[in-house]
Amino acid sequence: QVQLQESGPGLVKPSETLSLTCTISGFSTSSDYYWGWIRQPPGKGLEWIGSVSHGGKTYYTPSLKSRVTMSFDTSTKDFSLRLRSVTVADTAVYYCAGLGLTGAETFDMWGQGTVVTVSS
Amino acid sequence: QSALTQPPSASGTPGQRVTISCSGSSSNIGSNTVSWYQLLPGTAPKLLIYSNNQRPSGVPDRFSGSKSGTSASLAISGLQPEDEADYFCSAWDDSLNGPDWVFGGGTKVTVL
C-alpha cells in the first residue's frame, strides 16, 4: 500500500524559507515517476506548486517558479520542497502526491497534508 | 482565481443525482484530460475520476465523469451521506507561460 507523509515546521516567519519533506513508503521509487506538491490556502482551491522526478527533473508553476526548489533524494526515497521569502499568502495546507503510480495520468496518490502557517 | 471554474456549492437528498460542472479553456480541458478529486477534512485527497471518465479501482460506480469541448462534469448518482465533501476538477494546462497543472476552486456538496 503506497503511503505518502508530509513533514516539516507548522509555523514559518515571513521572509523565511518554508521547507517540507514527503516520505514515500510501500512503493518502488526506482522508476522515473514524477512527484508533486500541491497546496490549498484557507477558503481557496487547490494550487499545484511543482513536480520533481526520481531523476531530479523539475517543473514549477510559473507564478512561484522564482521562489521554489524541489529535489528527490534517491538514498532516503523522499522528496522535498523549499519555498523562499514566504508571506502570509503562503499559508496553506500543503500536500505531496505521486503522479501515475497506479497508471492514471494524474496525481493518483496523496498524503494527508500538513498545515503551514506564515506568521511572525 | 482558479483557472478552472466550478460552482461553489451543490446539494441533494439521499438517492438523488447531483452534477458538478468544471469550465476551462482550450489550453487545459480543451486539449487535455480531466481528473476529479474528493476532499474530506483531515484525510488525503481521493482520486475519483481520471482521463475524463475512468474510475480507479475501488471508486463506486455512482461516480461518473464526462467532458465536452472546454467543459467537464462529475455526476454522483444515488447520493449517499458519506458523499458530503469538497470536489475539485483538474487538468494539465499547455500555457504559453509554461506547463501547469490547474485546478478548480472546488464545489462543496451537501447531503440534505
Profile the largest sheet of chain A: 7 strands, mixed
Number of helices of chain B: 0
Largest sheet of chain B: 6 strands, mixed
Q: Whole-Å distance between the termini of chain A? A: 39 Å
What quaternary form is this? Answer: heterodimer
**From the helix content, strand content and strand pairing of chain B, which structural class follows?**
mainly beta
* H and E order of chain B: EEEEEEEEE
Q: Cα distance, first to last residue of chain B?
A: 29 Å
**Radius of gyration of chain B in whole Å, from Cα?**
14 Å
Task: Determine the strand fraction of chain A and express it as a percent band.
Answer: over 45%
**Structural class by secondary-structure content of chain A:** mainly beta
What does this protein look like?
The complex is a heterodimer of chains A (120) and B (112). In chain A, strands 2, 4, 5, 6, 9, 10 and 11 form a 7-stranded mixed sheet that branches. A 4-stranded antiparallel sheet of chain A has the order 1-3-8-7, with no helix packed on it. By secondary structure, chain A is mainly beta. In chain A, strand 7 and strand 8 (78-83) form a beta hairpin. Chain A has strands at 3-7, 11-12, 18-25, 34-40, 47-53, 58-60, 68-73, 78-83, 92-99, 107-110, 114-118. With 112 residues, chain B is mainly beta. Chain B contains no helices and 9 strands. Chain B has strands at residues 9-12, 18-23, 34-39, 46-49, 63-68, 71-76, 85-95, 98-103, 107-111. The radius of gyration of chain B is 14 Å and the shape is globular. The mean pLDDT of chain B is 94. Chain A binds chain B through residues 4, 36, 38, 44-48, 51, 59-62, 65, 95, 97, 102, 104-113, and chain B through 2, 33, 35, 37, 42-47, 50-51, 54, 56-57, 88, 90, 95, 97-106.
